[in-house]
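Reopening closed ticket. The problem is back. First fold of the pair:
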Amino acid sequence: TWGLRSWLRVAELGKMERMKVVLGHLTGSSQRRVWEPSPCRGSLSGPHDVVVVHGRRTPIARSKRGGFKETTPDELLAVVMTAVLNDVKLSPGQLGDICVGNVLQPGAGAMMARVGQFISGIPETVPISSVNRQCSSGLQALINIAGGIRNGSYDIGLACGVESMSLRSATNPGDISSRIMDFSKARDCLTPMGITSENVAERFGISREKQDAFALASQQKATRAQKLGWFKNEIVPVNTTFTDD
């Protein structure tokens, strides 16, 4: 059909453009390159743009004492995966790839991510990977999926981020080299994040009172937004059980 031919033509042009860019990187030039101003890439739009079409999340609970303290991350992940696919009316098998950001789970949550995939009904034919970039792991998952779409590996991908600080310890680094104390930069990796926050607060003059006031205002805004229903299309309800201590 015309539509299919047009789509194939666009795909062909996209590949040609990418080849030109790659060849430009590989081909040297004896002439001095003259740099010219150009519009910011973020301000442009075109048929090859990668776009985020939907996003959902679970509620956020307190670590060790909240409503999710006994809920495994694969269950939380599956709830959101299912909700997203249902909302956009996408057949799970149409996904080209899934990437899940995680920090504390073993292997950056590789097994946890795969289990969550199957619980949500996504077939094993859809590949999945996990990534750990500390606090920006979910963002890195989004970058990875966007990169795969941009380079033509697939057309649709699912980027996720999930964590349970209740079921894993952030203070246990596991088995590490006995030579860590011989290298100052490596030794610094053992410094808790709380110490870093103390150093930042002292450097920029952020008092405890200012931090408490900011935290209170943030909680008040979140409570008001929740009561007004501003998050109703974003938060996915989760049915779970936990022991009341």
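Second fold of the pair, where the issue appears:
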Amino acid sequence: MDRIVHGAQPIDQFVFRDDDGEYYMYYGGWGHCNMVRLAPDLLSVIPFEDGETFKEITPENYVEGPFMLKRQGKYYFMWSEGGWGGPDYSVAYAIADSPFGPFERVGKILQQDPEVATGAGHHSVIRIPGKDEWYIVYHRRPLGETAANSRATCIDRLRFDAEGRILPVRMTH
């Protein structure tokens, strides 16, 4: 992305491949998130059926760092909230029946733990192949660290309840 569309800063691109083989890219900062449909070459965009090229899908409190996963037929759209340089940086999510939304905000799943770290956010999620076992990879700021750019990469288990909601992530040491 090389321009601002719908107010979205062209950063933090995430490519999602749906079960039907379609690829979508989610991106954006400055409190706005867009999605585009990618051509098979993964280098160019193609319009959606309604003729639009960019769809704004900004959820409430979105700041940056979009991520999409699909589990048991549901689309989980995740993002970072708060300021990346402060203790309120966190990860929230919403659920939809389609990669286009509408997304119903559920809430925050990762935020600071005053006993472990602050500034937890900007994440990715990985799944163990063939299993319903998921992990969240993110950065956080060690306790006592005051430099905004001093962050550590961490990985913790991502769990779901019986209804498919993501449980709050417990930061490990």
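Update: turned out to be a display glitch only; the data is intact. The chain has one domain: 14-158. Residues 34 and 56 are 4 Å apart (CA to CA). Please close again.
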